[in-house]
Amino acid sequence: MIIIPAEKKVDWKHPPWMTFALMLVSLLAFLLYQGKDPELIQGAVSTYLDAELDRLEAPLYQDYLEREISLKGNTDLQQLLDWVEYLESEGDRVGLASLMLSDQTFYRYLRDNRDLLMNSRERRLWQSEREQIQERYISRLSAYEAGLMPSDLNFYSLITYQFLHGGWDHLIGNMVFLFLLGFTVEKALGPGRYLLAYLLCGVVAGLTHAAFHWGEATTLVGASGSIAGLMGMYVAFFGRRKIRFFYYLGVYFNYFRAPALVILPIWVGKEMYHHWASGGDGIAYLAHAGGLVAGAALILLLGRGWFQARESFYEPEAEERDEAFTREYAKAMEALSRMDFTLARQRFEALWQAHPDRPVLLEHLYHLEKLRPDQPAYRDRAVALMHQYLRLQQPENLLKTWQEYLDLGEPNQPLAPEEHNRVLFAALRGDDLKLAEKAFTRVKASGSVDMVREAGRLLADEFSKRQMEPKANEYRMLVKSL
């Protein structure tokens, strides 16, 4: 069963560049750096078989596995022993050689006990051939150069193992989950802190794995521990808020909503269960559990400081905002249809405060205040609406609103001369000299001398351009008289 949080959608206006960068680095590491591995493995197997080391090591390998199972109770190795016996029965020397060469714990066991396990001739052969294979091929494999090995733990490998993968399936699977989770966490933290959190979760996941496999020579590679950390961070950002999760069970899939943090113990418990029930399938379930806990802890402990989510992260998605707007707008229109103007005004006002980018709301408010044209509220809405039309570069609507206000509201609540002056400029841009002159009359009646002079000069220039010199001279004379 797979459960993935799916509360946020990708904002392609602000792409998750750091997530893409992590995916690209992993892909390049797989293609360029790990691309040498098949050739090295082929060379190791070929040399190993040419020296017939498999004839020497196969019985020792079977005895080693049986000893680990019976004496140390390592039942996870039973599947491996069954596979060894099957390869021997099939005479698959290549498969068996590949298996033994990849088991570095077995190699160390042979190295430390060769005097007891081999006679002098076998030891000479083993030392001359096997150690050369180890040095020339095995130690140069990416998993041993940059993977995380509990028996040889270092800070360098705690970082590098996160960018290596065991095959195309492993890489593609991890990159899909990295994208699905990464774009949300990157949106919350920003690229720099997101990268730091991603690597820290990978380090804790690696240390968790190493703690439970201390001293073992098997290597860990892959981004799944870091990605598990992203899952932990994701749910920690939302805390007890209900968010949407996608789940996949067999052939059935669907969505459900649940408090975000409730899913965290389910995820951790699932990884712990798989660890004990897997029978050694090679998947680092405890690393996943460590990454989950690390990611959640980073946000829960440092979420009010260094790893605090941006405020914009919690803003509703555009689709949700549109749905909420549609619902509230319908309620306001319903009140309007019932002629409940007080309730309609309250609802449109609330919508306008929440959605100042929607001009239709201010138009509704203007028309509601127009019912009482003698009140200051009508003037205020008219001015706000004219300013909106000015910003939206809609001079026709601005001039229409101004003329309507002159008829209804100007006798009781006169507009400021600055508003008439703005109308004058808009009329000139719209090539409506008649309306511009009407606005100038209002400016002249109440505006300052400087404002009147400037407006008069503009009109004089416009009439002059149209070769209407009598009109132009009229305004020039007026300006001179001020």
Automatic annotation (TrEMBL):
Q: What is its main location?
A: membrane
Q: Which family does it belong to?
A: Belongs to the peptidase S54 family.
Q: Name one GO molecular function term.
A: peptidase activity
| Keyword terms, alphabetized | Hydrolase, Membrane, Protease, Transmembrane, Transmembrane helix
Matching entries from SUPFAM superfamilies are given as:
Rhomboid-like
Chain segments annotated as transmembrane: 17-33, 195-214, 220-238, 245-268, 283-303
User: Which InterPro entries does the record match to this protein?
Assistant: Peptidase_S54_rhomboid_dom, Rhomboid-like_sf, Rhomboid_protease_S54
Q: Where is the Peptidase S54 rhomboid domain?
A: 155-304
A Pfam family in this protein? Rhomboid
Q: What is this protein's name?
A: Rhomboid family intramembrane serine protease
The beginning of the lineage is: Bacteria, Pseudomonadati, Pseudomonadota, Gammaproteobacteria, Pseudomonadales
GO annotation (BP), single: proteolysis
Specify the protein's topology with respect to the membrane: Multi-pass membrane protein
From which organism does this entry originate? Marinobacter lacisalsi
